Structure formats: structure tokens, C-alpha cells
Amino acid sequence: MSVAPLVPAVDYVKETATNYADSTKTHPAFKDQNTDTALCSREGTLFRVHSLILSLTSGWFRALLSLPQCIPSYQPSASPEIIHLVESSSVIAGLLSLSSGQPMPLLDSFEYVEDLLHAAEKYDMPSVISIIRLAIMSPPLLDAHPVRVYGIACTWGWTAEAKLASTKTIGCDLLSPSVARDLGTVDSRHLTALMLLHRRRRDIFRAGLNSPVLFYANAPEGRCMSCRREAVHVQWTRVKNVWSNAIEQSPAAVASKAILQHPDVHQLLEETCPSCVKKLYDPVGTVAKLNELLDQLPTEVEVCRLWQAEPCCQN
Fold first, then answer.
1. Helix or strand or coil: residue 90?
2. Contact in structure between 11 and 4 (CB atoms under 8 Å)
3. Helix, strand, or coil here: 50?
4. What is the DSSP letter of 19?
5. % helix / strand / coil in the chain, to the nearest 5?
6. Strand 37-40 versus strand 45-49 pairing type
7. Other CB atoms closer than 10 Å to residue 210's CB: what's the count?
8. Is 22 exposed, middle or buried (CB count within 10 Å of its CB: 0-12, 13-18, 19+)?
9. CA 120, 123, 128, 134 torsion-angle sign
10. Which pLDDT tens digit goes with each residue over 111-125?
């Protein structure tokens, strides 16, 4: 949802850097004296920048600098006019680095990422938002905290990113302490969609394991396929219990299909009929059906559940 930038009062630019020479420090990455504008953070740190760059990358600054009282000279000045901002030094440095081609700041916390996004929206800096949108989908952030990335993507209306992040969560135990902390940052309607994804996976998984159509051992008689005598499928019951618990307690093993290598599965495939001593289960067919069941599980949230209320912006 695009919002027209608000133009601040002219009083924001009345002072010059000379007035602050003794009481402020200049950010080391933005101390070029050949600039015509300075930004001042809430801590009092100055950022020397070119007004042309601000105008090209920010609709807010473009509107501000177009006012008759604020039209920049575009000439280097030892005492440029100061624009006071309420953001912290780290946020302003991040915005300027992302918008001016400098090395990308370290996105080492999601609080910082969200502060940057809100500031970029406030100052109408779409290029900054686009860069952050790409950055949070990188492995260090997405793999470590998929739930947090999912929440940010949902808030900003990034459908593809939200779906990918939700896929990354299927290997997470949502009730584990580390993941539960991230759940608290997700909006309730988006959290509901994510919980429903995990619930649907569990229900489909358990229904498949108990299906007599997929697995003949679930049939009431459960006769041996070779001698047709009744057999007791103890090992199959053990495998079902292990797998039914794994979808909640060890979801990563289910998502990666590592559960197919569980010792109980290997023991199942070696199980023989007590009457004819032939194998009770076809190894190839049984593994194929177990694999088919894993492939049937949903892997991403339903988009229709995500956008029941309008997000910050959609793309």
C-alpha cells in the first residue's frame, strides 16, 4: 500500500552544521565535506550527504527539498543545513548505505531489519525495501529464523517470500522454546495460517498412516499377502506410533524424509509371516507408499488465509 510522503515543517532545516561542530560527531562513513546536506540522528550524529542522492532515492526528501525555502544549492558547503530525524544513528546509516551504493549493513537482528523497513516506508525509499526484501531471504536469516521471516513477509504483503518462509518452518517444532519466542512476533491472523499448515500436515500424515487403502496392514484381518493367513502386524504398529509422534516432535526428520531411514522402518521391511516365513511387506512397495505419503503433505500456507486483512503493502 503506497502512501504519499509527508512533507515536514521547514523548521527541520533551519540550523547548520557549524552550530553543532562542538556538540556532535560525524559518522565515519558519511563525513565527506564535499556535500551540501547533513542529516542528524536522535543521538546527535551527523551524516554528510548529497541532497541529489536523497532526492533520487527518497520521495520524502524529494518533497522536502522541493519546497521554495529548502531548495538545495547542490554546492559543497562546510556548513550545510541540517535535517533532524528521529531515527537512531544505526538506522540512518543503514538507510544511507543501502540507498547510496555503500557496503550493505550487517542485518544481525530482526529488530534492526524491522526498524529499517519502517524508516524506509516512512521516507518513501522503495529501493531500500527491495534490497531488504531480498536480504532476509538469504540462508543466514531464513534458515535460522524462518518463523520471524515469515512474520515480516506477511506484514509487508510479500506473498512469495511468506510462502517460502512457511515452507522452511515445516521442519520446526513450533512449540520449542526458541521457535515459540519468534511466534510471539507474528500477527495473529498470519500465525493462524501457519498453525493450520502444521495442523493439516499432521492430520493428513496420521490419516495416511492409518489408511487400509495405502497399507494393507491396517485392514481388520491384515492377512499375509503370500499365504493369506491372519498375521499380527506388531512392527507396523510400532512404525506408525514412531511416525505419528515424529510429525510433532521431530518434524525436521519428516520434512527431510530422513525418517525413512529410521531403524524401525528397516526392521519392518525384514518382518516375516510366522506361518509361511515369507516377508510380510514388499520392501520396494512399502517404501514407495511411505514416500508417497510424505509427498502428499502440504508444504506452504494457503494464500487466501494470509491476506484476510490488508497488509502494509502488497507486491
1. helix
2. no
3. coil
4. G
5. 55, 5, 40
6. antiparallel
7. 12
8. exposed
9. positive
10. 999 999 999 999 999
Q: Read out DSSP for 228-283?
A: --B---HHHHHHHHHHHHHHHH-HHHHHTTGGGG-HHHHHHHT-B-TTT-SBSS-H
287-310 pLDDT per residue, tens: 999 999 999 999 999 877 666 545
Q: Going edge to edge, which strands form the sheet with 25-26?
A: 25-26, 45-49, 37-40, 81-84
Across 219-246, b (16+ Cβ under 10 Å) vs e yields eeebbbbeeeeebebebbeebbebbeeb
Reading the block at residue 308, the C-alpha cell is: 484476510
Distance, CA of 289 to chain centre: 32
Instruction: Look at residues 252, 244, 249, 245 and name the one whose alpha carbon lies nearest to residue 146.
Output: 252
84 SS3 class? strand
Given the C-alpha cell 538469504, which residue does it identify? 138
Would you state the cell numbers that stand for residue 274, as one nine-digit string? 510366522
